[in-house]
């Protein structure tokens, strides 16, 4: 059984989100470059140069970066894949996340110094399959999302030296651990090669046909029910972390979401960081972590399959909408000089805006002609602008997300601190 503190692994869709995840509490991040990653859109956010910058940033802070090479290549791509593996290895990530057995073998040949983590796309559910990959040189297995905690424990009993990573939060695929062709059939975008169009999230209208005479008719539905027939709710296992960590079988807790927002990266990292730290300190307050997690955009939450078998679940699909807004809107992000912020929504003078800081950052109250930073009775810090001044001193009546000018702060705030306000309109997108 695992006696070390569990790792918190966050998504890094680009360099900014990599830094945010680390500042808000992640022990490690995962990211990719190019189409060999299963998130092409996120992979395009990184160049090899910025990926190296991210690795250096993480290593300087004692954190790790795992590079995703978890797509399923065609024969025509293998020579390019070999070059990609060598290029990525030269950047010195802490591990490769790989799905295909042939790619595992290739990575071992080209970059034997880099640890191999087996992607959830490999669908490992039992110790027999885990043993095969262990014998191939895989150090860690990211088990299938459909696995039970009981089976995770069983794998650990048979392979105590193999690291086990599980997903605890984020989007769920309609298909088995992402083995989906819906997007490929409808849009020509292949999910298992990184270009999923998320067709399962779409609204569908159902029809029936009489094959004898070809009559086609629309199936009438109760308004708002039964249209998003493939749309899985988002995984949220924060309330089950004590049970998971008590098992001693899990080495890493993984958050999904490389294409999600910087705010999502921040909130999920901080909430799960607090949950993990609280567990090891002998306290555990699920309602506190859930309150934060519910501020993010989501499709509704489910505890998925780790605690309950798939056939026992009746609430894992969201038939009503594709994505909700979440209860908060991000209005600003503090820049690297810690003296300005960039507007992400809209900011007006004389409004109290909550300050959401990276993990363990202390704030200093202040007040001057620009505004004030202060603490309310609820224990939270807020900022209120008397004036909205650009970096060059120009005064604005308000500032909106289209304005790229840096706005002066009344006092210094930690880099990547966010401002947020409650959504008064939580309608569905």
TrEMBL record:
Superkingdom assignment: Bacteria
InterPro entries in alphabetical order: Peptidase_U32 (IPR001539), RNA/ubiquinone_mod_enzymes (IPR051454)
PROSITE patterns, A to Z: PEPTIDASE_U32
Keyword tRNA processing attributed: no
Any one GO molecular-function label of the UniProt entry: peptidase activity
Signal peptide: none
Keyword line: Hydrolase, Protease
One Pfam family from the record: Peptidase_U32
GO biological process: proteolysis
Family (UniProt): Belongs to the peptidase U32 family.
Name recorded for this polypeptide: Collagenase-like protease
Organism: Arcobacter cloacae
């Amino acid at each position: 059984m695992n006696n070390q503190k569990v790792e918190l692994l966050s998504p890094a869709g680009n360099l900014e989100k990599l830094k945010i995840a680390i500042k808000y509490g992640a022990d490690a991040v995962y990211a990719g470059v190019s189409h060999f990653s299963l998130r092409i859109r996120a992979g395009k956010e990184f160049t090899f140069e910025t990926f190296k910058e991210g690795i250096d940033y993480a290593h300087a802070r004692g954190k790790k970066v795992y590079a995703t090479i978890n797509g399923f290549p065609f024969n025509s791509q293998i020579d390019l894949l070999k070059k990609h593996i060598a290029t990525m290895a030269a950047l010195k990530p802490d591990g490769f996340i790989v799905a295909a057995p042939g790619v595992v073998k290739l990575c071992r040949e080209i970059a034997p110094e880099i640890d191999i983590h087996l992607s959830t796309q490999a669908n490992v559910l039992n110790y027999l399959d885990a043993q095969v990959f262990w014998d191939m040189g895989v150090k860690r297995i990211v088990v299938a999302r459909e696995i039970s905690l009981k089976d995770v424990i069983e794998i650990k009993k048979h392979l105590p030296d193999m690291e086990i990573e599980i997903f605890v939060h984020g989007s769920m695929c309609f298909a088995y651990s992402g083995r989906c062709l819906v997007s490929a059939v409808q849009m020509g975008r292949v999910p298992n090669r990184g270009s999923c169009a998320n067709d399962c999230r779409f609204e569908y209208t159902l029809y029936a046909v009489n094959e004898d005479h070809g009559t086609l008719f629309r199936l009438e539905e109760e308004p708002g029910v039964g249209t998003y027939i493939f749309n899985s709710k988002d995984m949220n296992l924060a309330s089950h972390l004590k049970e998971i960590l008590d098992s001693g079988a899990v080495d890493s807790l993984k958050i999904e979401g490389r294409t999600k927002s910087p705010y999502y990266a921040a909130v999920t990292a901080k909430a799960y960081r607090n949950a993990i730290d609280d567990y090891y300190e002998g306290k555990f307050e699920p309602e506190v972590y859930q309150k934060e997690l519910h501020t993010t955009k989501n499709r509704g939450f489910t505890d998925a399959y780790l605690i309950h078998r798939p056939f026992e679940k009746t609430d894992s699909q969201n038939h009503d909408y594709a994505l909700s807004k979440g209860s908060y809107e991000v209005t600003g992000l503090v820049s690297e000089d810690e003296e300005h912020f960039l507007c992400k929504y809209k900011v007006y003078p004389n409004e109290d805006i909550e300050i959401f800081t990276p993990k363990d950052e202390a704030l200093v109250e202040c007040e001057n002609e620009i505004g004030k930073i202060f603490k309310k009775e609820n224990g939270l810090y807020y900022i209120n602008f008397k004036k909205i001044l650009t970096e060059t001193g120009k005064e604005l009546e308000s500032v909106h997300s289209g304005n790229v000018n840096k706005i002066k702060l009344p006092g210094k705030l930690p880099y990547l601190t966010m401002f947020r306000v409650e959504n008064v309109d939580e309608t569905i997108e």
